[in-house]
């Protein structure tokens, strides 16, 4: 009786005690390293990287072991400056990224100067938790950032409560979804955070079992977003999903994920210019070199050596302006409770933003809008004077043919006859 009850448990324990070396990591082979050059060029020539974008770049470059002192100094300066300028304004996830970037691949004795940043992160994480307590479970920011917080606190000896992690990171939590759609980026970041937490748990108690269960369930959700071509979620979540799958390979079967296929598709997308934005390049690069954010506090894993990226920096391939003298026409709709529609004519090669600008010229009342610059480019904050509101979880969603687009207004290239829409939505 006792035995039959215990045997499966022992099996379960053995299963979860299998060392992390089991990780199946597929990475771009040495012969194919040159295919990463477009990413590196984009990152290295982004001279005007600011704040969070700079932090993402520095983190990625350190992880893949690129030694370019000048660049590192430049990005380092950007990160430090932005911390000095607006430390108290930084969101929790911004601060977490800054810490990850500054401390990545550094011996812990060099990092004494950053100690106060970690304690500030502890406070900001608590503020997120408090906000969830009084605002219907909504954090100040989002779960992508809360995951970055836990990951960073866990990696750099910050204090956080496992009980709170267990309470707030249940896979069913609504914050893993935007408008009913599972956010692969968010789930992947949570898997990285929970994996760090799992590794830090000393005894084999209930905590370990629960965290294991969360990881398993999130991994399942991530894998269920795998597309026929191997992308996971979309082009821009695939890098982070790969990182999550690298560190969680004992939670799924080999035949559930063909890493090589994912890699091949990403390489194809690189050659087609899909990662021509520094932050997009920075988010995909570590995974392609077999690295994850869990490696940042492991100096020997970061240190460059044979087999590491041998970089050849070229001048960036000029992106020939595709704007031509051919004109195309698209339908443009603003959807609130009412529908506002117009037909817009723009030069071939125009982006979503150009269409919105043209529409605004046609009818200022119906189509006026505002945007702010962010690490991913222009972000639409208001249309017709109606402003997004974090407390109500409202935002302006971008769609084409009724489907959400995977790029912002500054990057999404429009096609002749397309039905574009900005929709007042909730997440
Ligand atoms: C949370 C989130 C959102 C939230 C932001 C509000 C909130 N509550 O935080 C919501 C749901 C509103 C959102 C909306 C959109 N998002 Co979003 N979002 C994210 C996510 C998961 C985390 C961002 C974050 O907090 N990063 C950490 C902090 C520290 O960095 P940050 O730069 O300060 O973060 C801010 C910006 O990223 C900004 N933001 C969020 N999404 C987008 C998208 C664009 C195009 C821009 C310019 C800015 C922006 O909001 C963040 C919080 O202030 C990322 C995933 C990722 N891999 O980065 C996707 C991500 C950035 N979003 C993406 C997209 C496509 C969108 C939408 C265009 C989707 C759509 N079809 O409508 C819209 C933006 C439309 C607009 N108004 O311009 C893509 C961008 C890909 C690309 N190549 O441009 C990402 C990478 C997800 C993905 N894999 O598709 N998003
Ligand atoms: C965290 O603390 C442990 C033990 O207290 C120490 O061995 C480890 O080096 C520390 N890690 C960092 C990144 O400071
Ligand atoms: C290099 O990439 C190509 C195309 O993705 C692939 O077919 C080939 O096997 C790769 N080479 C190696 C050595 O992995
Ligand atoms: C650090 O990285 C090295 C090289 O990748 C690896 O062998 C080692 O197991 C890692 N150590 C930890 C604690 O993860
Ligand atoms: C890096 O590239 C240079 C020139 O392309 C070559 O001479 C050198 O041997 C390469 N180093 C490694 C470690 O592959
Ligand atoms: C849309 O209509 C609903 C129900 O009539 C109303 O409560 C809401 O305020 C309207 N929203 C906007 C943005 O006009
Ligand atoms: C602009 O749009 C508003 C709202 O649909 C409409 O009432 C107005 O007549 C339009 N103005 C012009 C000049 O078309
Ligand atoms: C665009 O709008 C026009 C009406 O002005 C409509 O006839 C056409 O079918 C729409 N285009 C598409 C692709 O739906």
Describe this structure in words.
The chain is an alpha+beta fold. The protein has 16 helices and ten strands. It folds into two domains: 269 residues, Glycosyltransferase (Alpha/alpha barrel); 100 residues, Ferric Hydroxamate Uptake Protein, Chain A, domain 1 (Beta Complex). The strands form three sheets. The protein has a five-stranded mixed β-sheet with strand order 4-3-10-8-9, covered by helices on one side. Strands 5-6-7 form a three-stranded antiparallel β-sheet, with helices on one face. Strands 1-2 form a two-stranded antiparallel sheet. About 3% of the residues have low confidence. It binds cobalamin and 2-acetamido-2-deoxy-beta-D-glucopyranose (NAG) (7 copies). One 2-acetamido-2-deoxy-beta-D-glucopyranose binds next to loops.
Which term fits the overall shape?
globular
The total beta strand count reads 10
Number of helices: 16
Computed CA radius of gyration, to the nearest angstrom: 23 Å
Supply the number of structural domains.
Answer: 2
Q: SS-based structural class? A: alpha+beta
Mean pLDDT: 88
Q: What is the CATH class name of the largest domain? A: Mainly Alpha
CATH architecture of the largest domain: Alpha/alpha barrel
Instruction: Using the coordinates shown, work out and report the CATH topology of the largest domain.
Output: Glycosyltransferase
- In percent, how helical is the residue content? 40-55%
Small molecules bound = cobalamin, 2-acetamido-2-deoxy-beta-D-glucopyranose
Gap between N and C termini, in Å? Answer: 49 Å
The amount of beta strand, in percent, is: 5-15%
Major sheet strand order: 4-3-10-8-9
Largest sheet: 5 strands, mixed
Keywords: Cobalt, Cobalt transport, Disulfide bond, Ion transport, Secreted, Signal, Transport
Family: Belongs to the eukaryotic cobalamin transport proteins family.
GO molecular function: cobalamin binding
InterPro entries: Cbl-bd_prot (IPR002157), Cobalamin_Transport (IPR051588), Transcobalamin-like_C (IPR027954)
């Amino acid at each position: 009786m006792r035995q039959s009850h215990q045997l499966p448990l022992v099996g379960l324990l053995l299963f979860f005690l299998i060392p992390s070396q089991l990780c199946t990591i597929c990475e771009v082979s040495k012969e194919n390293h040159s295919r990463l050059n477009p990413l590196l060029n984009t990152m290295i020539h982004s001279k005007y990287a600011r704040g969070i974008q700079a932090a993402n770049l520095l983190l990625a470059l350190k992880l893949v072991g690129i030694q370019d002192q000048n660049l590192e100094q430049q990005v380092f300066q950007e990160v430090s400056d932005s911390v000095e300028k607006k430390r108290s304004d930084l969101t929790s996830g911004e601060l977490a990224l800054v810490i990850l970037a500054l401390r990545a691949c550094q011996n812990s004795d060099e990092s004494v100067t950053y100690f106060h940043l970690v304690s500030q992160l502890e406070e900001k994480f608590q503020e997120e938790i408090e906000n969830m307590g009084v605002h219907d479970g909504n954090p100040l920011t989002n779960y992508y950032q809360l995951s970055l917080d836990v990951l960073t606190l866990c990696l750099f000896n910050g204090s956080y409560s496992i009980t709170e992690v267990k309470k707030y990171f249940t896979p069913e939590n609504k914050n893993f979804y935007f408008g009913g759609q599972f956010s692969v980026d968010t789930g992947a970041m949570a898997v990285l955070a929970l994996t760090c937490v799992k590794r830090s748990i000393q005894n084999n108690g209930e905590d370990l079992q629960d965290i294991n269960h969360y990881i398993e369930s999130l991994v399942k959700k991530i894998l269920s977003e795998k597309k026929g071509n191997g992308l996971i979620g979309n082009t821009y979540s695939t890098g982070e999903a790969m990182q999550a799958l690298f560190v969680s390979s004992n939670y799924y079967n080999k035949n559930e994920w063909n890493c090589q296929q994912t890699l091949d598709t990403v390489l194809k997308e690189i050659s087609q210019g899909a990662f021509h934005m520094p932050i997009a390049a920075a988010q995909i690069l570590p995974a392609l070199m077999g690295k994850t954010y869990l490696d940042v506090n492991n100096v020997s894993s970061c240190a460059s050596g044979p087999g590491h990226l041998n970089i050849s920096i070229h001048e960036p391939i000029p992106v020939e302006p595709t704007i031509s003298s051919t004109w195309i026409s698209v339908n443009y709709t603003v959807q609130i409770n009412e529908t506002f529609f117009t037909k817009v004519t723009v030069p071939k090669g125009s982006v979503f933003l150009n269409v919105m600008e043209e529409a605004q010229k046609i009818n200022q009342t119906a189509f006026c809008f505002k945007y702010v610059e962010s690490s991913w480019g222009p972000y639409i904050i208001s249309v017709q004077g109606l402003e997004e509101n974090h407390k109500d979880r409202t935002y302006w969603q971008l769609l084409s043919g009724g489907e959400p687009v995977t790029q912002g207004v500054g990057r999404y290239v429009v096609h002749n006859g397309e039905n574009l829409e900005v929709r007042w939505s909730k997440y």
